[in-house]
TrEMBL record:
GO terms for cellular component: actin cytoskeleton; cytosol; plasma membrane. It comes from Ursus maritimus. It comes from the Eukaryota. Belongs to the EFR3 family. InterPro entries: ARM-type_fold, EFR3-like_ARM, EFR3_Homologs. This is EFR3 homolog B.
C-alpha cells in the first residue's frame, strides 16, 4: 500500500502545470541557501516566452507567500519577494498588469504584518516597483491602502529607537514611491486629492520636525555620515521637495493646505523656526510662477488665526523674499480677495510684537514693525514697467485723511491706520530703492505724487521720514544719495565726485507742474517739532538731489527762496520750536546754500555764503552742521539775539545772482507756501500756520529781516475769513473762464481777432540769461512754449 501511495503522489506531481513546477523549484530545501538562481533563470525565461502565464505565476507566488507568512516561514517569504522583484524587472509585456495585481496583494500582506522586517521588506519591493516605467496603462489600480499604511509607518512609535527609525524611513520611502508612480500618470488615482494629501504631507512634516532630535542622537563624528543616511528628517525633506516640485498650478492649494493645518494643530507658528523652515522648503521647491499662490494661501490663513498672526506674517515675510526671485508682479497682490482689509486686520489685531509707540521716531530701515507684508520684495527684481504698476497699487492702499479715503476713528482705528501706513510705505520704499526711470513724469505721476505728499502732512514723524526717503529714492537716478548722507559745509564739493546730467525737457515739465507742491511739503516738514537728525539729513539729501537731477534756472531760484524761508522759520520761531530744531534749520540752510553756490559757480554768491559760514565758525558754531548734527550737539541756549552777520541775506543773494542772469525779481520775493485742502483734512494744525505766515510776510515793509513788522494776531474770525476768501477767489476765476468761453462761442470773428491783436503786441521775450549747471558750466536757455503769455481766449 505504501508503494501505491508514493506512486500516486509522484504521478500527481508530474501532472502539475509547468509554471507551478518552475516556481516550486526556485525554493531550496533550506531557506538560508537563498534563491536557486539557475531555476530562477528558467522561470524568467518561461515567463518571457509565455507572457500569458505571468498572471498565474504571480497568483501562485502570492499563494505560497501568504501560506509562508501564516506559518512564520520568513526565509521563504524573502525568497518569494526576491523572485517577484526579478520577474517585475524582466517582464514589460501587456499582461504585466495582472501580475502587478498579485504583486501588490503580496506587498499589502507584508505591510499588514506586525513584524518590522516584513514591513520593511514589503516597502523595499514596492519602491523597486515604483521605479519601473510600465509600457501599458492601468485603469483600475488603487493605491489608497498604500498611502494610508505608509503614512501610518511614518508615525511609528516602536519602543526600539533603531527599529522605529527604520520603520519611519520605510514609510517615507513608500510615500515617495507612491508619488513617483502616480503623480505623472493621468490614468492613476489622483494623488493630489485632499484625501491623499492630508495623509502624505503631515506624515512628512512629522518626521521633518524631529530633525533636531535625530541630530542629537549622533554618537560620534566618525559615525555621522552613516547616521545622516538613516535620518528620517532628511529623507522626509527630500521627499517633500520632490512632491512639491511635481505640483502643477492647480495642485498647489491641496499641497499647501495640509501644511497650514499641521502647523495649526501642533502649535508650530510660535516659535517660528520650524514654520519658516517648512515654507523655505516649499518656496524653493515649487515652480517660481506658482509662488504667488503660496502667498495668497498664507494671507487667507491669517483670517482664521488671530492669536498666532505674528508668526504667520513672519513666515509670510520670509516666503515673499524668496518669491521675489520668481516671476511675480501686481497680480500676486491684487488676485488675493480683500487684500486691503487683511492688511488692516494684520496691523491692528496682531500680537504684541506689532505694538509701536506713537512717539517713536526711528530710521525707516530700523524696521519698527517687525512683521510686515513685504510687498516690495515682490517688485524688487521686476522690470521698470511692472515696478510702476506695483508702486501705484501699493500707494492706492495707503489710508489717507482725505474726503475720498476716510480714516478709521478711535484709538484702535488710529493705531491700525498708522501700522498699515508704515507697512505699506516700507514696502513702497523697498520697491523704489534702485528704481531707474529717465522720465520723472512716469516715475512720479500726479495721482501717485499727490497721495504720497499727502502722507507727508501727518503728525507721525516716522511716516514723514518714510516719505522723504521714498522721494529721494525716486529722484536719485545717478547714485548720488549716499554722498549727501552727512550734512556738511565742504569748501570744495568736487571731492564728492557727483554724477550730473543736463536736466531733460521731461524733467523740466515735471518741475513746472509739481515743483511748488514739492517745495511746500519740504517747507512744512522743516517746521515739525518732532523732527530728529534723520529728518534733517533726509531733507538735505532731497534738496541736494533736486538741485542735481532736476535743476534749471527757475528751480535754483525757488530752492534758494525756500531755504531762506526755512531760515526765517528758525529766526522768527512762531512755531515755538526747541533749540535743537532751530539750530538744525540754521545748519541745514548753511549746508544747502554752500552746495548750491558751488553748483551755480557764481563767484559773488560763493563769496557771500563763505563769509557767513566763516563768521558762524568764529562766533556761532551752533548754527553749522558740524556742531549740530553730531552725537552730542553743541547748542546755544539763546537764539533770540542772532545778528544779521550770521544770516544769509535775501537782498544780497538776489543782487549777486541777478547780475549773472538769474531772475532777481523772483529772488526778492519771499517764499510763501500755498494753502490746499490737504491742510484742512489732515490732522496737522497747518491752516493757522500757513495763514499766519502769509499775513506776516504780506505785512512786511521789506523782505529783509532788519526791519520786521509783528505778525497780525490770528483769531477764529481771521481763519474763517481766509477760508471764505479763498473759496470766493476760486469762484471768481471759474466765472472769468466761463465768460471767456462764452465770448469765444458767441462773439463775431472780427471782435475776437481785434481782441487778440490788442493783447499780442510783441513777440515772446528773449532768453533771460544763462543758467549754470554743475561745476559752473553755463548753458543758454530760451523761453519754453509753456512759459509764453497767450491771450485769455487761448487759455482753457
Amino acid at each position: 500500500m505504501y508503494h501505491i501511495v508514493l506512486g500516486v503522489c509522484g504521478c500527481c506531481g508530474a501532472l502539475r502545470p509547468r509554471y507551478k513546477r518552475l516556481v516550486d523549484n526556485i525554493f531550496p530545501e533550506d531557506p538560508e541557501d537563498g534563491l536557486v538562481k539557475t531555476n530562477m533563470e528558467k522561470l524568467t525565461f518561461y515567463a518571457l516566452s509565455a507572457p500569458e502565464k505571468l498572471d498565474r505565476i504571480g497568483a501562485y507566488l502570492s499563494e505560497r507567500l501568504i501560506r509562508d507568512v501564516g506559518r512564520h516561514r520568513y526565509g521563504y517569504v524573502c525568497i518569494a519577494m526576491e523572485a517577484l522583484d526579478q520577474l517585475l524587472m524582466a517582464c514589460h509585456c501587456q499582461s504585466i498588469n495582472l501580475f502587478v495585481e498579485s504583486f501588490l496583494k503580496m506587498v499589502a500582506k507584508l505591510l499588514e504584518s506586525e513584524k518590522p522586517n516584513l514591513q520593511i521588506l514589503g516597502t523595499n519591493s514596492f519602491v523597486k516597483f515604483a521605479n519601473i516605467e510600465e509600457d501599458t496603462p492601468s485603469y483600475h489600480r488603487s493605491y489608497d491602502f498604500f498611502v494610508s499604511r505608509f503614512s501610518e509607518m511614518c508615525h511609528s512609535s516602536h519602543d526600539d529607537m533603531e527599529i522605529k527609525t527604520k520603520i519611519r524611513m520605510s514609510g517615507i520611502k513608500g510615500l515617495q514611491g507612491v508619488v513617483r508612480k502616480t503623480v505623472n500618470d493621468e490614468l492613476q488615482a489622483n494623488i493630489w486629492d485632499p484625501q491623499h494629501m492630508d495623509k502624505i504631507v503631515p506624515s512628512l512634516l512629522f518626521n521633518l520636525q524631529h530633525i533636531e532630535e535625530a541630530e542629537s542622537r549622533s554618537p560620534s563624528p566618525l559615525q555621522a555620515p552613516e547616521k545622516e543616511k538613516e535620518n528620517p528628517a532628511e529623507l522626509a525633506e527630500r521627499c517633500l521637495r520632490e512632491l512639491l516640485g511635481r505640483a502643477a498650478f492647480g495642485n498647489i492649494k491641496n499641497a499647501i493646505k495640509p501644511v497650514l493645518i499641521h502647523l495649526d494643530n501642533h502649535s508650530l507658528w510660535e516659535p517660528k523656526v520650524f514654520a519658516i523652515r517648512c515654507f523655505k522648503i516649499i518656496m524653493y521647491s515649487i515652480q517660481p510662477q506658482h509662488s504667488h499662490l503660496v502667498i495668497q494661501q498664507l494671507l487667507s490663513h491669517l483670517d482664521a488665526n488671530i492669536l498666532v498672526r505674528a508668526g504667520i506674517v513672519e513666515v509670510l515675510s520670509e516666503a515673499a523674499v524668496i518669491a521675489a526671485t520668481g516671476s511675480v508682479g501686481k497680480g500676486a497682490l491684487k488676485e488675493t480677495p480683500g487684500w486691503n482689509a487683511r492688511q488692516g486686520r494684520m496691523s491692528g489685531d496682531a500680537s504684541p510684537g506689532f505694538r509701536v509707540s506713537p512717539h517713536a521716531t526711528p530710521h525707516p530701515r530700523s524696521n519698527p514693525v517687525p512683521h510686515l507684508f513685504p510687498a516690495g520684495s515682490f517688485a524688487s527684481t521686476l522690470p521698470t514697467y511692472q515696478r510702476s504698476e506695483v508702486i501705484l497699487f501699493i500707494m492706492s492702499k495707503v489710508p489717507l485723511p482725505s474726503l475720498h479715503h476716510p480714516m478709521e476713528t478711535g484709538r484702535t482705528g488710529e493705531n491700525r491706520n498708522r501700522l498699515t501706513q508704515i507697512m505699506l510705505l516700507k514696502s513702497l520704499l523697498q520697491v523704489s530703492t534702485g528704481f531707474q526711470c529717465n522720465n520723472m513724469m512716469s516715475a512720479l505721476p500726479s495721482n501717485f505724487l499727490d497721495r504720497l505728499l499727502s502722507t507727508a502732512l501727518m503728525e507721525d514723524a516716522e511716516i514723514r521720514l518714510f516719505v522723504l526717503e521714498i522721494l529721494i529714492s525716486f529722484i536719485d537716478r545717478h547714485g548720488n544719495r549716499h554722498k549727501f548722507s552727512t550734512i556738511s559745509t565742504l569748501s570744495d564739493i568736487s571731492v564728492l565726485k557727483l554724477k550730473v546730467d543736463k536736466c531733460s525737457r521731461q524733467d523740466t515739465v515735471f518741475m513746472k507742474k509739481h515743483s511748488q507742491q514739492l517745495y511746500r511739503h519740504i517747507y512744512l516738514s522743516c517746521k515739525e517739532e518732532t523732527n530728529i537728525q534723520k529728518h534733517y539729513e533726509a531733507v538735505y539729501g532731497l534738496l541736494a538731489l533736486i538741485s542735481i537731477e532736476l535743476a534749471n534756472e527757475e528751480v535754483v531760484v525757488d530752492l534758494i527762496r525756500l531755504v531762506l524761508a526755512v531760515q526765517d522759520v528758525a529766526q522768527v520761531n512762531e512755531e515755538n520750536l526747541p533749540v535743537y530744531n532751530r539750530c538744525a534749520l540754521y545748519a541745514l540752510g548753511a549746508a544747502y546754500l554752500n552746495l548750491i553756490s558751488q553748483l551755480t559757480a557764481v563767484p559773488a554768491f560763493c563769496q557771500h555764503v563763505r563769509e557767513v559760514i566763516e563768521t558762524r565758525k568764529k562766533e556761532a558754531p551752533y548754527m553749522l552742521p558740524e556742531d549740530v548734527f553730531v552725537e552730542r550737539p553743541r547748542l546755544s541756549q539763546n537764539l533770540d539775539g542772532v545778528v544779521i552777520e550770521f544770516l544769509f541775506r535775501q537782498s544780497k543773494i538776489s543782487e549777486v545772482l541777478g547780475g549773472s542772469g538769474y531772475n532777481s525779481d523772483r529772488l526778492c520775493l519771499p517764499y510763501i507756501p500755498q494753502l490746499t485742502d490737504e491742510d484742512r483734512l489732515s490732522k496737522r494744525k497747518s491752516i493757522g500756520e500757513t495763514i499766519s505766515l502769509q499775513v506776516e510776510v504780506e505785512s512786511r515793509n521789506s523782505p529783509e529781516k532788519e526791519e520786521r513788522v509783528p505778525a497780525e494776531e490770528i483769531t477764529y474770525e481771521t481763519l474763517k475769513k481766509a477760508i471764505v476768501d479763498s473759496v470766493a477767489v476760486e469762484e471768481q476765476e471759474r466765472e472769468r473762464r466761463r465768460q471767456v468761453v462764452e465770448k469765444f462761442q458767441k462773439a463775431p470773428f472780427e471782435e475776437i481777432a481785434a481782441h487778440c491783436g490788442a493783447r499780442v503786441s510783441e513777440p515772446p521775450p528773449s532768453p533771460s540769461g544763462t543758467i549754470t549747471a554743475a561745476y559752473g558750466q553755463p548753458q543758454n536757455h530760451s523761453i519754453p512754449v509753456y512759459e509764453m503769455k497767450f491771450p485769455d481766449l487761448c487759455v482753457y
